[in-house]
Amino acid sequence: MDKQRADNYELHRREVAKTLLADRNDDFLVITGLGSPNWDATAAGDHPLTFPLWGAMGGAATMGLGLATAQPDKRVMVMTGDGEMLMAMGSFATIATQATENLAIVVFDNERYGETGMQATHTAGPVDMAAVAKACGFPVTATVKTEAELMEALPLIKEAKGPVFIDIKVKAEPLPFILPTKDGVHLKNRFRERLLGPDSLL
Amino acid sequence: MTENYAWAPDIYDVLKDLDVRQVAYVPDAGHARLLKMCEADNAMRCIPLTTEEEGISLCSGAWLGGERAVMLLQSSGVGNCINMLSLANTCRFPLLMLVTMRAQWREFNPWQKPMGEGTRPALEAMGVKVTQAEHPDEVGETVRSAGEMAYGWPDMAAVLLHQKLMPVKTFGK
Questions:
Q1: Which of A23, A141, B67, B101 is the most buried (most CB within 10 A)?
Q2: What pLDDT does B2 receive?
């Protein structure tokens, strides 16, 4: 295990989030995992079609699966962390088996548990998440470490026939909290109202 | 009557009435007939899970996208769901869980006892409304009532399908 490696990664997670969420339209639906990916998405600009989780660790990817299955004509991106995704390793198998074409899972991999004191996760050791996804049957997988690789991955995340899995190695760095509302009922209703129309709330 | 799961088509009819489109499951013998019917239905997507916990977030995502989902699981799998129920509870996502029970009636395997006996209290501790169907002729309407509540309020509902509804499992003994 290399606990210092991520201190020197080139990509900054807040910038990566801005890049992924730039120029979005209402055909692009986003779920974030709890903790840092939630704050990153919020820092990039809150949006009704972003559902930022505040809990439910290990649930982001399969939440994306349910959403993508219900909305096959929209693109669904799950943006989560390495710790959250490690808790959901079985989800790689579940999602690949459904062969959900409109779903992309993106992990911001800083090799740490960011909310609890920056302890090393298993990806600071031998675990290669993109290889796990590939072995489970994801047709499109990549590990991204540079700005140039991020630019190559962007169209895969947005358009490639999925399920897509992209592991983005990001610098382990302390960042300010940028919090969205934590009212889950509100987050759910604003998402459904924007996606399905006001009658969906009746 | 319990040998051929005659109540399974009643559940299927109710799921059709409720317009359920996603069927998340970890298989159980008690759900096998219902699952076959769902798999034969092009309007339903059957989604096998590696662990029941995935089903809670899956059903929440389905609702976010405008579809109704149901979970089929065995009582032992309820234990795998506990923290993830926070998602449905906090956000008031609808959740309908159909749970085939173990350790209630002529149970052969003592390893089923802890979670079989813990199923109802664990669900209730997390805020899930629990009802039980014990007789074949009450299964369909019990599921209907739970489903109407789950999708209509919306809220979390579990129907326990009593072990008497299933054949006795004796592992060849």
A1: B101
A2: 52
- From the centroid of its chain, how far is CA A20? 10
Q: What is the pLDDT of residue B1?
A: 44
**Measured distance CA(A171)–CA(B173) in Å, rounded:** 59
Cβ atoms < 10 Å from Cβ of A32: 28
User: ipTM > 0.90?
Assistant: yes
- The verdict on a CB contact (< 8 Å) between A90 and B47 is no
pLDDT in tens, A91-129: 999 999 999 999 999 999 999 999 999 999 999 999 999
Selected residues 64-103 of chain B with any CB under 8 Å from a CB in chain A: 64-67, 69, 83-84, 86-87, 90-93
In this structure, what are the phi and psi dihedrals at residue A106, rounded to the nearest 5 degrees?
-120, 125
Residue A105's φ and ψ, nearest 5 degrees, are: -105, 125
Summary mean pLDDT of chain B: 96
Distance (Å) from the alpha carbon of A202 to chain B's nearest alpha carbon: 10
Judge whether B130 and B1 are in contact, CB under 8 Å. Answer: no
Q: Map residue B96 onto helix, strand or coil.
A: strand
B84 and A188: CB-CB below 8 Å? no
SS3 call for A147: helix
Is residue B12 less than 8 Å (CB to CB) from chain A?
A: no
Closest by CA to A80, choosing from A57, A101, A47, is: A57
Please indicate whether, in this complex, the C-beta atoms of B65 and A60 are within 8 angstroms of each other.
Answer: no
The partner residue sitting opposite B64, judged by closest CB among A57, A91, A192, is: A192
Q: How far apart are CA B101 and CA B130, in angstroms?
A: 13
pTM of the model as a whole: 0.97
Place of tokens 């779920």: A31
Q: Which residue numbers in chain B have pLDDT < 50?
A: 1
